[in-house]
């Protein structure tokens, strides 16, 4: 079977039979496409363990440990699928272990930097109000960017002051909204969105011509707005999510509450923010404690 056909059928399998999320499917297919571009093999049966080993060696020099771990998971799933369908008789991934991933503390931005970015959005066009609304919503709700761009107008409950969010694994959670953010959403919804929504979309946030806003679109929007504000820190949607979580923790919010707000299925995922807090404590001690100053 040709490689391109095998990947196409694997994509259908992931979507229809396994029910994988759109983001997961896109990541797997991108990783497999990069593998095939490197190998230059037309037929899937031509790929050997030596080919995989060569690509992994190349990947370790060009990608982060987390990226390589994700790629190997994709390759393993693909190899199992090929054997399941009788396309391959041997598992080309059985000789390779997943790389150990070092624990990386979440990166954050300061609330002052976020305020600077928001204050710099002074335009009066619908897209200006929309962009400010999206950024404010992320920092005040901790939403994943994929969750935000898929929000519908009906997900906003102005009476209860909440958002209904569908997260990973199609799990639903309710996010409370503060009065200022809720007012900002309402102003955008009634004053700006009608000018953008030319196609009758049900989505809360839409593009200039009523088209959906993708994750990549918002990455560019946020990055452009941050650069225009003059902040030095590189902004990403996930940094806003991390900042939301660490701010709550620094204000002594309960870890279980943070877990629910972030939509983590396992609290062990949430506990990494305690490490961030400890890192800040150590940094503050080194910077401000008199005994520490005498030692430097």
Automatic annotation (TrEMBL):
CDD domains: INT_XerDC_C. Residues 104-286 form the Tyr recombinase domain. InterPro entries: CB, DNA_brk_join_enz, Integrase-like_cat_sf, Integrase_catalytic, Integrase_recombinase_N, Integrase_SAM-like_N, Tyrosine_recombinase_XerC/XerD, Tyrosine_recombinase_XerCD. Keywords: Cell cycle, Cell division, Chromosome partition, Cytoplasm, DNA integration, DNA recombination, DNA-binding. Its main location: cytoplasm. It is found in: Cytoplasm. Belongs to the 'phage' integrase family. XerC subfamily. This is Tyrosine recombinase XerC. It comes from Intestinibaculum porci. The lineage of its organism: Bacteria, Bacillati, Bacillota, Erysipelotrichia, Erysipelotrichales. The gene is xerD_1.
């Amino acid at each position: 079977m040709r490689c391109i056909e095998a990947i196409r059928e694997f994509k259908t399998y992931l979507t229809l039979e396994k029910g994988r999320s759109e983001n997961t499917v896109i990541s797997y297919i991108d990783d497999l496409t990069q593998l095939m571009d490197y190998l230059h093999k037309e037929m899937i049966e031509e790929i050997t363990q030596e080919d995989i080993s060569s690509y992994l060696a190349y990947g370790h020099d060009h990608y982060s440990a987390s990226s390589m771990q994700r790629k190997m998971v994709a390759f393993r799933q693909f190899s199992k699928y090929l054997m399941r369908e009788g396309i391959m008789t041997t598992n080309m991934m059985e000789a390779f272990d997943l790389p150990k991933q070092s624990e990386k503390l979440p990166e954050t931005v300061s609330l002052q930097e976020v305020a600077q970015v928001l204050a710099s959005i002074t335009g009066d066009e619908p897209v200006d109000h929309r962009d400010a609304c999206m950024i404010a919503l992320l920092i005040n709700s901790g939403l994943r960017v994929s969750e935000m761009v898929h929000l519908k107008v009906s997900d906003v409950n102005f009476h209860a002051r909440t958002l209904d969010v569908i997260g990973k694994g199609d799990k639903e959670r309710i996010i409370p909204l503060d009065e200022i953010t809720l007012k900002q959403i309402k102003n955008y919804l009634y004053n700006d969105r009608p000018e953008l929504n030319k196609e009758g979309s049900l989505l809360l946030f839409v593009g200039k011509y009523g088209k959906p806003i993708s994750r990549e679109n918002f990455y560019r929007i946020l990055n452009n707005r941050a650069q225009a504000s003059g902040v030095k820190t590189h902004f990403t949607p996930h940094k806003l999510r991390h900042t939301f979580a660490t701010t709550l923790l620094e204000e002594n919010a309960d870890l279980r509450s943070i877990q629910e707000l972030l939509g983590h299925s396992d609290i062990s995922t949430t506990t990494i923010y305690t490490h961030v807090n400890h890192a800040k404590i150590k940094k503050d001690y080194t910077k401000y404690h008199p005994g520490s100053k005498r030692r430097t």
